[in-house]
Input
Amino acid sequence: MGSVIGESGERYEVDETPFRDIDGRSVTYRCWDSRGRERVYRRYTEPVGHGRWIRGTTVHGHAAVWAEELNGPVAESAIGWPIDVVALGNSVAGVIAPVVPAGFRLRDGRFRTLEDLCVPARNPPDAARRVGVLLRVCDLFVLLEAAQFGHGHVELDEIAWRDEPLDAYLLRADRLRPYGAGCDGDGDRLTLAVLIYQGLFLGPANRQSVYEAWQVPGGLPAGLDMRLRVLFDRAFTGESRPGPVEWRDGLAAVYLTPDGSSFLAQPLGVLDEFGEYFRGTVIGQVAAVPPYLTPQPRPRRRRGWPMGRIAAVAAGIMLLPAVAIGLGMGAAVVAKRTSHQPSAGDLGATTSVRLNTAAATVVTSTVVITSAPVVTTSAVAAAPPAQDRYAAVVLAYFDAINRHDYDAAWSLGGSVIEGGNRAHFPHEFDSLSRDAVTVYPTGGPTVYAHLDAYQLDGSVQHYDGYYVVQGSSIVQWNIHPSS
Output
C-alpha cells in the first residue's frame, strides 16, 4: 500500500498486510508517522460520503492523544480516538488512530472484548473481575458524557478489557458523534444499562433479549441490592434514566468496601450463583428455565386463611429460593434489612485482583445493605405521600381498603388484584382488621412492597412482592406470603 497522507498533512507509511478486520466495516493496518511512532490505519470498506462528524471527532481525538503523548497518560487515553482523517475527495476513506495497548489483546492477537466478559459460552471471569471492568466501562461513559460525544449503540465487541490492572478501552471511537449530530446522551445511558445488565448477570447477548429478560419476574436476581434494582427500573422504563456517574457510584456502593480497595463477597456471591445457571448456553439466546424453576402463579391473598395453610404456603415459597438461590427465576422479594458495619473479624480475604493500580481483595462480610428510602401507610394514615407517583398509587390502594372505601380501592387496582368480581370484592376483607404496607419506590412503575395484614383474630399475615402501576391504577402484581 505504501503510504497515505492525512488531512493534517502527516504522511504515514503503511504495512501492506492487514492485521485485523472489524466486522466487515473496515480493515486495519499498521502504520508509522514521520517520527516513527506506530499508529493504525483503519480503512473503511466503503468511503463515508458525509464525514463532517468524523472530522469533528478527529479534532477532539487529536487534542486528547497529543496531550497524552506530551504530558503522559490522561483519562481519555482509554478511548481509541481517531487522530487524523484520510480523505478520498470529499469523502473519508479511513482514519488514523493510536495503537491499542497490548494488555487488551489475547495471545492469539484478537482483542479481549466484553463478549469474553459477558457471554456465557465464552467462560467469563468471576463476578469480582466483571464488576471491576464494569466500573471502568462506567468511567468511559463518564468521559464521553463530559466531552459531549455519543455513540448510540455500543456493541459488546467494541469495548476491550484487561485484568492487570482492571481496565476498559473503547475500540471504535471513530463512530462517536458530537451531541446534536444524530446522537445524544440518553441513547448511551440506555446502552450502558444494557452492558451492565449483561456483565453482571451473564444473560442475553443482545439488547432486545435484555429487554425481554428484564421484564419478567426473575430477570433480576432475587438477592440483588435494592439500589441497583432501582437503577435498572429507571433505565429500562426510560424515566429519569441514570447516568454513568450514578451507575459507577451504585456499583461501588454495593460491591466495594467504603475505601474502594476491596470487593465484598456477599453481594458478589449473588452474581456468581445467578450467573452459573447461564454458563454454557448458546450466544444470543435466553437460557430455557427448567420446569421445576418456572415461577408458579401466586395465590390471591384471601382473608381468614387458616394459619396452618399460611405456614404451608410460606414454607413452600421459601423452599424455592433455597433451591434456585441466585437464579432469580422466582418473583423478586423485597426483604426487610438492617444496617451493620463490618468489623475486623468480619473480613476474610479470599481472592486477590487488581483495580486500577491498587490491590482490590474480595472480602467476606456480614454487611447487609439498607434498602432504598421507604414509605409506610397504615389504618391511621391520612393521604399517601406524593413524592413518588407510582408508590402513591399503591399507598392509596391500601389506604382506601383501610378506610373501607372499596369503590376507590377497586378503581386503584382492586379489579386486577382481587380477580374482577366487584360484588365479592368487599368480602375479601371480612377477616381483616387493617393493612400496614411498606413501599420501596424505584422512580419507575415497579413498586416493591412488604405487607403486614392484621387479622380480626389477632394474627398477622406477611407478604412480599411488587406492583406495577400505569397511570392512576395498579395493572400487574406479584405478591406472596413471607415469614
About this structure: Confidence is low (pLDDT under 50) at residues 280-386. The two ends are 72 Å apart (CA to CA).
